[in-house]
Amino acid sequence: MQVVTRWKNQLAAIGGMALAAGLFVSTQAPAQAQAAYGSYIGGGISFGVTNGGGGPNETTNASGNLAVRYKFLRAPVSLRTQVLVGGNGAAIVPTVSYDIPINWQGDAYIGAGASIVRGDKTPIGNKGSFVIQPGVDYSLPNTSLMLYTNAIIAFDGYKSNNGTAVSIQAGAGLRF
Q1: How far apart are alpha carbons 37 and 29 in whole angstroms?
Q2: In the 8-state DSSP scheme, what is residue 55?
Q3: What pLDDT is attached to residue 19?
Q4: How many CB atoms lie within 10 A of CB 141?
Q5: Which of 118, 47, 110 is closest to 76 using CA atoms?
Q6: Euclidean distance between CA atoms 129 and 114, whole angstroms
Q7: What is the pTM of this model?
Q8: Who has greater pLDDT, 72 or 32?
């Protein structure tokens, strides 16, 4: 009988410690999501979804893209640049973005900047202009890979009619 009582006392002590540990863990402050960690460089594809309507040099266009993000670690701000190359032209689109955390791996963002266009055919028109860039970054868990997708909206992006040019980008990058 004494052995059974000793086991009961030990099990009660273990149960009490487990209960205390559970209460301690459950009273910790909840974790806050932060914007997807890290800067990256990557590449992907870009598709123009509008055309200027002014002739053969203002049609929609597909191209490759190079994307760079520099993430400021203490602020929800990033510097981003996309280079769209292909077809009959190239465009550089530097922006400053405000990053909005979605979860531990991803963030949404909205950026503003300018397009610098060389040549006649790019996915964002054929004229330099002010741009807005909404997008999403996603960090693949346990890797250095980032996936990104965004749109570039270039206001007054066409020479012939001052129309708005819109392109969609997607790709993958490596964090650094």
Answers
A1: 21
A2: S
A3: 45
A4: 8
A5: 110
A6: 6
A7: 0.77
A8: 72
